[in-house]
Design a protein that fits this description.
The protein has one domain: Pnp Oxidase, Chain A, CATH 2.30.110. The radius of gyration is 17 Å and the shape is globular. The protein is built from four helices and 14 strands. By secondary structure, the protein is mostly beta strands. The chain has a seven-stranded antiparallel β-sheet, with helices on one face. A three-stranded antiparallel β-sheet has the order 1-13-14, with no helix packed on it. Helix content is 12%, strand content 36%.
Amino acid sequence: MFYRPEDGHGLPHNPFNAIITPRPIGWISTRDSEGVNNLAPYSFFNGVAYTPPQVMFASTGQKPDQDNTKDSVANIRATGVFCVNVAEYAAREALNATSATLPKGVDEFAHAGLTAAECSQIDCARIADAPAALECRMTQIVPLEGQNNVLVLGEVVGVHMRDDCIRDGRFDVLAYQPLARLGYRDYARVTDLFEMIRPDD
C-alpha cells in the first residue's frame, strides 16, 4: 500500500501514529501566571541533545479557552519553564486522566490524584513520585506547518531520579516499566531489554 497524506489513506483510522512507534511520553507539567499547576501527556516527545541536555515536545491542536494553543504551551510562553515527568506503567490511569480536555485554571495534579512537589531550579511543579523528572528552561517555541502545531524545545537544568530506579549505578528502566504510546488507543510498557555493543565501541 502507498498513499500521499494530502490524498488520504482510505483506512478506517489514520496509520501515521501506528507507524512511528513506540513513542516515549513526555508528561509535561507547567504553571500558569496565576500559580495554577497544569499537567498533560505528549507523545510527540524526545531528547534531542546531550551537551547541554535538551528535550522537545510538539503540541498539536488547541483549546477554545486558550488562544489557538493548549494550556501547556500557553503557560510555557508566559513563564519560560516546564518539567518533563517520566511516565511509568503503574501511573497509566492517572496519565490518562490528565489527557482530558479541562478548562484552563484546573489543576490536573488534583484531578488525577497525583502529589505535586516543587522543582528545584525552576518555578514549576513536578510529580512527586515519578521515576524521573527533568526541569527545563524553554529555549525555543517553533511554529510548525499546519494549524496550531508548535515545537517546544528546552534545556534540562535539573534532574530528579527516584532512588529505587537506580540499580548498580544505572537508571534502570525495568524498575518502573516505562509507558510508551503506540497508534490508535494502544500503549505498551517496557518489561525486558537486551544489549548490543556498537562496532566502534
